[in-house]
Design goal:
- It contains 18 helices and 19 strands.
- It is of the alpha/beta class and about 550 residues long.
- It is globular.
- The protein binds 1,6-di-O-phosphono-alpha-D-glucopyranose (G16).
- 1,6-di-O-phosphono-alpha-D-glucopyranose (G16) binds next to loops.
- The site of 1,6-di-O-phosphono-alpha-D-glucopyranose (G16) has 18 residues, from loops.
Length: about 550
């Protein structure tokens, strides 16, 4: 009998039956659905994450219990690989298969074939870090994960309620023998914030820059951890907290947070709006961030992931040139990126830009093609990554550079590297980087906004009978199925100047997403509604027809 099968035959094996009512998929960023249906999924992910570690010869891996931007009734799981990156895609398929396995015998068969395929040696001790967001359901789901991990005698550490990017950071710290930092909250805040304060000390003239931030914490873990961060920031930033009610779970992401503000293009509820003040919204697990402000006539201005990417890429490129280093930089976007941001990156910043499918895992992977890769989704999810050799080169050059201006540029690059969480999008790290560049440039949010003009755009969601009937190509810019839908989209788009629209099934919610942009907001809105209505008609729309 295989060692896997014997685990299932032990008298103390605890069974978590699959109620069989839902088809699960390890989608854009893990598995998500109503928390009530996830017990058996979590138990199986506990076993899978243990085997992932054993397969990697006891490297530390991570498991985060979160449904990020989703409503509070949902929950989910994201698995983390040893360098803090998202789970390798071949294992996503296994996670999907395991979650849908009908009974324990089926689970044991899947795991047995996994063990034989990867030749996993039972003598390796699985090592796992786990964390969860503030959702009420998290604790119960954690218990199921722990049962699964214990069945494989895992050495695990539970960090309790933390942000997703913190857990990614901790996993990387462990596997780099702590060269990246210590796997704890204090080291995380110290590393990022010290670099930020060092850089702040180099800035002598703030001009239009303002240190005061109105912070929308989405009533989630981002608010909790921002409160912890305040003691590290030493008043370099004045952060006024809003939407920080983490004890009432149902307030999480409700009419607030980065996803709400980006999708609805309006301020969140739960805070008063002052003209020209600087607002930040993060999402439910604090891996996304967006900025916004309103002017004296109450007009709303959004500074999303596209804006952050252009701000950061432009600044880093300037420092590379000033340092005299021969280092290339590239930017990675998705189809959601505003057409004018892509033009600005290519034509004004003269930085090469690539487009990949939605999901940070795709952006991260592509960004590794460059010496320094900057990647952001328009929804505010992103970071920048440096090749190991470039990180070493920058530090080595700084240690021997005699030219004062080159040395300053190198020191600034080192600070940017050290305040970046390179493992994944991180709202706290991204905020520090944005605040640094704004301060260096002496910019208000209005100055930043004026760097280029976005094309008016609209995001919509359509609920259909089965979103799995949709498939896309060309980095999601073309809809392949349902057959004939793309032709219809093309003919609608042709009616509007400077227009573009695409549709794709969400990997985190049970909806099909629609993106539309055009020369005016009225046209973008009309385009989005027309495309949404065609989807509704062609794919068995559920609920009210878009109008
Ligand atoms: C996750 C992914 C993001 C993605 C977002 C929406 O974010 O990490 O890369 O953009 O879902 O994906 P979809 O459009 O497929 O629903 P988060 O912050 O919710 O984990």
């Amino acid at each position: 009998m295989s060692w896997i099968k014997s685990i299932f035959n032990e008298s103390n094996f605890i069974s978590y039956p699959n109620p069989g009512s839902i088809v699960f998929q390890y989608g854009t960023s893990g598995i998500r659905c109503k928390a009530d249906y996830l017990d058996h999924v979590m138990h199986r992910m506990g076993m899978l994450v243990a085997l992932r570690s054993m397969c990697l010869k006891s490297a530390r891996v991570g498991l985060m219990i979160t449904a990020s931007h989703n409503a509070h009734e949902d929950n989910g799981v994201k698995l983390i690989d040893p360098q803090g990156e998202m789970l390798e895609s071949s294992w996503e398929v296994l996670a999907t298969e395991l979650s849908n396995a009908i009974d324990d015998q089926h689970v044991s068969t899947v795991l047995t074939s996994l063990v034989s395929k990867y030749n996993i040696d039972s003598s390796y001790i699985p090592k796992v870090y786990v964390g969860r967001d503030t959702r009420y359901s998290g604790k119960k789901l954690l218990d199921a994960v722990i049962v699964g991990m214990k069945q494989f005698n895992s050495d695990f550490e539970d960090f309790g309620v933390i942000t997703t990017p913190m857990l990614h950071f901790f996993v990387r710290c462990y596997n780099t023998n702590c060269l990246y930092g210590q796997p704890n909250e204090q080291s995380y805040f110290n590393k990022l914030t010290t670099a930020f304060k060092d850089m702040r000390n180099m800035c002598t003239d703030y001009k239009n820059y303002n240190t005061v931030i109105e912070f929308d914490g989405a009533n989630g873990v981002g608010a909790l951890k921002m409160k912890d961060a305040l003691s590290y920031l030493d008043n370099t930033l004045i952060i006024n907290m809003h939407n920080d009610e983490v004890s009432s779970s149902e307030k999480l992401n409700s009419k607030c947070g980065a996803d709400f503000v980006k999708s609805n293009q309006c301020p969140p509820t739960g805070l008063s709006i002052k003209p020209n003040a600087k607002y930040i919204s993060v999402d439910g697990d604090a891996d996304r961030i967006i900025y916004f402000f309103v002017d004296e006539s109450n007009k709303f201005y959004l500074l999303d992931g596209d804006r952050i990417a252009t701000l950061v890429a432009g600044y880093v490129k300037e420092q590379i040139i000033a340092s005299g280093l021969d280092v290339n930089i590239g930017l990675v976007q998705t189809a959601y990126s505003n057409g004018n941001s892509t033009n600005f990156v290519s034509n004004t910043l003269k930085v090469p830009v690539a487009c990949v499918p939605t999901g940070v895992k795709h952006l991260h992977h592509k960004a590794q093609d460059y010496d320094i890769g900057v990647y952001f989704e328009a929804n505010g999810h992103g970071t920048l990554i440096f090749k190991e050799s470039i990180r070493n080169l920058i530090r080595k050059e700084a240690s021997k550079q005699k030219d004062e201006s080159k040395l300053i540029a190198l020191k600034k690059l080192i600070c940017i590297m050290d305040m970046t969480n390179e493992t994944v999008g991180d709202a706290y790290s991204d905020m520090l980087i944005v605040e640094t560049v704004l301060c260096e440039r002496g910019w208000s949010l209005n100055d930043w906004y004026n760097t280029y003009a976005d094309l008016p755009n609209r995001l919509m969601k359509v609920t259909v009978k089965d979103r799995n009937t949709f498939s896309t190509g060309d980095a999601e810019r073309i809809c392949i199925r349902p057959l004939g839908l793309q032709d219809k989209i093309n003919s609608i788009v042709a009616n509007y100047p400077m227009a573009r629209s695409f549709v794709r099934p969400s990997g985190t919610e049970d909806v099909v997403r629609v993106y539309a942009e055009a020369d005016t907001q009225v046209h973008a809105d009309k385009l989005a509604v027309e495309v949404a209505a065609v989807i509704y008609d062609m794919a068995d729309g559920v609920g009210k027809r878009p109008s």
